[in-house]
Amino acid sequence: MMKKMMISPVSFILSFLLIIFFSSHAAAQDFWPSDYSAPQGPAGYSSKKSGNITVDDFVFSGLGVAGNTSNVFKAAVTPAFVQQFPGVNGLGVSLVRADIAPGGVIPLHAHPRATEIILLVEGTVVAGFISTANDPYIKTLKKGDIMVFPKGLLHFIVNSAPSNALIFASFSSDNPGAQILDNALFAKNFPSELIAASTLLDVAEVKRLKGVFGGSG
Fold first, then answer.
1. d(CA 126, CA 138)
2. Which of 135, 197, 207, 213 could form a disulfide bond with 186, CB atoms 3.0-4.6 angstroms apart?
3. Which segments are annotated as binding site for oxalate?
4. Residue 158 and residue 6: Cα distance in Å, rounded?
5. How confident is the model over 94-115, as pLDDT tens digits?
6. If you average pLDDT over every residue of the chain, what do you get?
7. Is 208 in a helix, a strand, or coil?
8. Domain ranges in the chain?
9. How many CA atoms lie within 13 A of 54 on its CB side?
10. Model pLDDT, residue 4
11. How confident is the model at residue 179 (pLDDT cuts 50, 70, 90)?
């Protein structure tokens, strides 16, 4: 017959303490709200110490107010990325609000670190993306429609309707990044002659667009 295995009181207590220790350690790793006062490293923001974490780290109220669309694009994007919303640090999600006035546009841009999915809450827009095979995928969206833009691909939204459009977009990263094509070409000091040579635009037109976007060179 097999003998019953006996556990000594000391072993039992040690096992119980280890369970408590690892459970507490795991709980401390449930979330990592951003510590904006600490240096930012290659992996992103450091986390607040557990004693400094509050429920306010997990609440963001900035998306309830319409953005200012008085700009060249007639559009405003209000982000709730890790830079603005500490609670999403390390969780791989984030959100933005986009307000687009009639005739406005979210210009061609890409997010190098995230797939994006948009929900049209108000209005009618034309949205689309371009694949790496340079095929365009374009659709007119109405209230309640959603559309996904795969990670890293150029995409855009145009409001050609007579009323404002409101969009909420979510991302598969807390820090999706964004590169706007117009700003990359015309808002900095990329030499005009090189832009003209690489895009086949006229140098005069390049300089005109730099005047619109505040670029030089």
1. 7
2. 213
3. 111, 116
4. 73
5. 999 999 999 999 999 999 999 9
6. 90
7. helix
8. 65-177, 184-213
9. 3
10. 55
11. very high
Question: How big, in percent rounded to 5, are the helix, strand and coil portions of the chain?
Answer: 25, 30, 45
User: Rounded mean pLDDT of 24-29?
Assistant: 52
Query: HEC profile for 58-107?
Result: HCCCHHHCCCCCCCCCCEEEEEECCCCCHHHCCCCCEEEEEEECCCCEEE
Q: Which residue has tokens 């609670």?
A: 87
pLDDT at 23 over 70: no
Cα 103 from Cα 85, distance rounded (Å): 30
- Which segment of 24-28, 121-125, 181-185, 210-214 scores lowest on mean pLDDT? 24-28
Query: Among 184, 136, 128, which residue's Cα sits nearest to residue 158?
Result: 128
Note the pLDDT tens digit of each residue in 60-89: 999 999 999 999 999 999 999 999 999 999
Question: Which residues carry a binding-site annotation for Mn(2+)?
Answer: 109, 111, 116, 155
State which CATH number among 2.60.120.10, 3.40.720.10, 1.20.1250.20, 3.40.30.10 fits the domain covering 65-177. Answer: 2.60.120.10
Q: What is the mean pLDDT of the segment spanning 183-208?
A: 94
pTM: 0.82
Cα distance between residue 44 and residue 113, in whole Å? 13
Q: How far apart are the first and last CA of the chain?
A: 90
Query: Which strands make up the sheet holding 105-110, listed edge to edge?
Result: 136-142, 124-130, 155-158, 105-110, 179-180
Hey, what are 18's tokens? 């280890």
What does DSSP assign to residue 174? S
